[in-house]
Amino acid sequence: MVETLTNDIIEKETTNQMEFMNAFGIVFEKHFVVFDNNKKIKINMSEAKHVNMRKSRIMTKNIFLIAIAVYTLIFSYYLDIALVYKIIFETLALFLLTLGMLYKEYQYKFIIVKLNECITFIVKEHLKEDAKKIQRVLAEKLHKG
């Protein structure tokens, strides 16, 4: 889908000179186009104030694992079972707690700050490097202009 979108854009934009292109977007002389979930976002350079890429941590799986560890500890404490089973449950809880603290998952957000609004969308993992390159090119171009 990206290829057909970019071909259409390149054919329509014969007046502007293309400066940079990859799977995440295209930078022209006076505007840029960014692709987000089969949508294209076109923004003029005069409207854009700042472009940023932010890395944030996803904590849902961590919270889930830690909650299961806490419930396992509570379960083993209040349940009247043999000591061997309590040790097994507490070891399982310790393992889940450690796993919950060490597990790391990140998502990347592409942020475009315009004069009157802020556009934010999540970058897919396989387009992360392309998004970083587009961000660098746009930041340099906006800083000069």
Describe this structure in words.
The protein has 145 residues and is an alpha+beta fold. It folds into two domains: 26-56 and 109-144, no CATH class; 61-102. 46% of the residues lie in helices and 31% in strands. It has four helices and seven strands, in the order αβββββααββα. Strands 1-2-3-4 form a four-stranded antiparallel beta sheet, with helices on both faces. The mean pLDDT is 86. Keywords: Membrane, Transmembrane, Transmembrane helix. The chain crosses the membrane at residues 62-79, 85-103.
Strand segment tally? 7
- The backbone outline, from C-alpha atoms, is rod-shaped
Helix-strand topology string: HEEEEEHHEEH
The chain-level structural class is alpha+beta
Oligomer: single chain
Which regions are unreliable across 5 or more consecutive residues at pLDDT < 50? Answer: none
Report, as a whole number of angstroms, the end-to-end distance. Answer: 32 Å
**What does the radius of gyration come to?**
24 Å
Helix content: 40-55%
Instruction: Estimate what percentage of residues fall within beta strands.
Output: 25-35%
Summarize the biggest pleated sheet.
4 strands, antiparallel
